[in-house]
Design a protein that fits this description.
163 residues, Translocation protein sec66, elongated, mainly alpha
Length: 163
């Protein structure tokens, strides 16, 4: 009886502190990851603020408003791309058990917020010209792609000058 009791006590004394440490460590990692991700997901939407400010000014040309709306849609497209990348990485981390499900709920809430932003942009585009709401994000996607290509070319030029 004594020979079985000692290994069991040893295992209990070994497993309990390790599991306690693991739980504390994961919760601290989880809190720090929430802080990092929430900062990157919820940056201020400067283009939306600019568009709303221009919309409230009475003497703003329609062309300026359309350009501001397109820039707003371009920023939304970039946010969609970033959200997709973040979600893939987050699902991988959740499957490995490195972060909790609460983080997935946060990204889903951010997706819903982005969807409402997209609906708002489409309805604003339709106020300028009926049917423009369907095409504005195609144009915005092309512009965002060009911005990405331009940034890569500028980075290549900068690296070439440094070398």
């Amino acid at each position: 009886m004594n020979s079985i009791l000692i290994p069991i006590i040893y295992l209990v004394l070994l497993i309990v502190p390790l599991s306690l440490f693991s739980k504390i460590y994961r919760s601290s990692k989880f809190k720090s990851s929430i802080d990092l991700i929430s900062d990157s997901w919820f940056e201020p939407h400067i283009e939306r603020s600019t568009y709303i400010t221009l919309l409230q000014q009475p003497e703003t040309d329609e062309i300026v408003l359309k350009c501001a709306l397109i820039r707003r849609a371009v920023e939304d497209v970039k946010r969609i791309w970033k959200m997709r990348d973040d979600k893939v990485a987050l699902v991988t981390l959740i499957q490995r058990g490195q972060v909790g499900d609460q983080l997935l709920q946060q990204i889903q809430a951010a997706e819903k917020e982005l969807e409402s932003e997209i609906v708002e942009v489409v309805s604003e585009a339709n106020t300028f010209r009926m049917g423009w709401g369907q095409g504005i994000f195609q144009s915005a996607s092309e512009i965002a792609q060009q911005d990405k290509i331009k940034a890569v070319h500028q980075n290549i030029g900068h690296v070439a000058r440094v070398e």
